């Protein structure tokens, strides 16, 4: 029997003040990779407010799981069509029954088996998360899956070797040994720092062109 978001919320305890479990990142590589995923997407979508990114944040989805604290959340998850505001954790029954639309796990020696089995099954069967990716900052293993019917099917790399994400409207791939976002045309999405440097270089190039024409650019 299906249950509405309102019925689910009525059955669950107040989760608005539930704190996320603290999970120490496996290594500096993992921390830097997570920060990169967050900062690039936030920069790209800086003019929109209808999404939420969870970084190392717990997802609470059942009364028993809330009481036992027996599941810790994904390294990175994205929820579309929701408010972009700070949250202490993602509490499904406080969020109209919404689960993540996309999840990325950063593999490590201690988590890889769980990420590829237990968590994958949870995201497929309980969360019904549309897309699931995993990436190892250590050996650069990358795989992606999309929900087709009741089960995940592996996302096959496109002609440029990238994994297409319908949720993001972008592709995922490896650039300079990091997991990065790419445009559908295959151009890497810049970090805020890369974007600022590129803009500065364009400005300096334009200034040089103006000077060559005898025009002193305005400061």
Automatic annotation (TrEMBL):
Coiled-coil annotated spans: none
Matches recorded under InterPro entries: Nuclease_put_TT1808 (IPR012296), Restrct_endonuc-II-like (IPR011335), Uma2 (IPR008538)
Putative restriction endonuclease domain location: 28-157
Origin: domain of life: Bacteria
Annotated SUPFAM superfamilies: Restriction endonuclease-like
Pfam families the UniProt entry points to: Uma2
Protein name: Putative restriction endonuclease domain-containing protein
Lineage: Bacteria, Bacillati, Cyanobacteriota, Cyanophyceae, Oscillatoriophycideae
